[in-house]
């Protein structure tokens, strides 16, 4: 029997506001007052520093970043440093993950596989690289393996936070302000940079939901953020 799941699309929203909503949903899930949820969003440019971040991987000062219109913030997820911005879809599964998948490591690998399957629907072969998280593709411009999807999660009271980002058509120049995820010898790419006509983020969202349902055995239905305040 498929497990019920909700999805909410916040659209273009500030990272701070989106994370406040994510924490609210997380708490309600912990208290069993809300169904497990996939939260989708697009952010204005921001660099996030995970729990494992290193100062050397931030290549610009906060003042220089501000002049470029890029914010900087520390976050509770695992991993190093990441960039989020317009043209990138962020997915935050807020789940009692062991209802679906046993073990945090297996959960992460399954999230990666969801993105690999999604990219395959667009004719783009995604893959994993041993020892590195996220999803990678061979960029036709550089002929190198480049990251197209970054991943960083947190688990609190058995419920997940944060999640995965998919580069559809972000400003790739902004990634030069950091060493993404602290990986010095690998670049970053996007669906557009790989030669695809960038699909709308709403289309990528719908493809993610289909791939997620198939991987996790869920049945996902739309919900609105207004309902959160009614619980």
Automatic annotation (TrEMBL):
PROSITE patterns in UniProt: BPL_LPL_CATALYTIC
Q: Which residues form the active site?
A: 181 (acyl-thioester intermediate)
Keyword Ribonucleoprotein in the entry? The reply is: no
Known EC number(s)? 2.3.1.181
InterPro entries, per this entry?
aa-tRNA-synth_II/BPL/LPL, BPL_LPL_catalytic, Octanoyltransferase
What reaction does this enzyme carry out catalytically? octanoyl-[ACP] + L-lysyl-[protein] = N(6)-octanoyl-L-lysyl-[protein] + holo-[ACP] + H(+)
Q: Name one Pfam family in it.
A: LplA-B_cat
Q: Mind telling me which residue stretches traverse the membrane in this protein?
A: none
Name of this chain's protein:
Octanoyltransferase
What is the protein's known function? Catalyzes the transfer of endogenously produced octanoic acid from octanoyl-acyl-carrier-protein onto the lipoyl domains of lipoate-dependent enzymes. Lipoyl-ACP can also act as a substrate although octanoyl-ACP is likely to be the physiological substrate.
Cellular component (GO) terms are: cytoplasm
**Keyword list, A-Z:** Acyltransferase, Cytoplasm, Transferase
Q: Where does substrate bind?
A: 77-84, 150-152, 163-165
UniProt family annotation: Belongs to the LipB family.
């Amino acid at each position: 029997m498929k497990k019920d799941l909700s999805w909410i699309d916040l659209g273009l929203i500030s990272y701070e506001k989106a994370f406040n909503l994510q924490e609210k949903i997380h708490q309600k899930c912990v208290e069993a007052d809300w169904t497990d949820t996939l939260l989708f969003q697009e952010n204005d440019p921001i660099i996030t520093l995970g729990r494992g971040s290193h100062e050397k991987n931030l290549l610009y000062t906060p003042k220089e970043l501000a002049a470029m219109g890029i914010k900087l913030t520390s976050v509770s997820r695992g991993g190093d440093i990441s960039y989020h911005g317009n043209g990138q879809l962020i997915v935050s599964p807020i789940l009692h993950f062991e209802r679906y998948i046993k073990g945090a490591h297996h959960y992460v690998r399954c999230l990666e596989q969801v993105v690999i399957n999604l990219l395959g629907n667009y004719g783009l072969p995604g893959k994993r690289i041993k020892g590195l998280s996220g999803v990678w593709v061979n960029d036709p411009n550089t002929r190198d393996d480049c990251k197209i999807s970054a991943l960083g999660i947190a688990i609190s009271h058995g419920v997940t936070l944060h999640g995965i980002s998919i580069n559809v058509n972000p400003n790739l120049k902004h990634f030069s302000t950091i060493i993404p995820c602290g990986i010095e010898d690998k670049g970053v790419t996007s669906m557009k940079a790989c030669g695809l006509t960038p699909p709308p983020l709403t289309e990528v969202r719908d493809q993610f939901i289909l791939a997620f349902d198939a991987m996790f055995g869920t049945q996902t239905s739309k919900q609105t953020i207004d309902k959160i305040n009614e619980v």
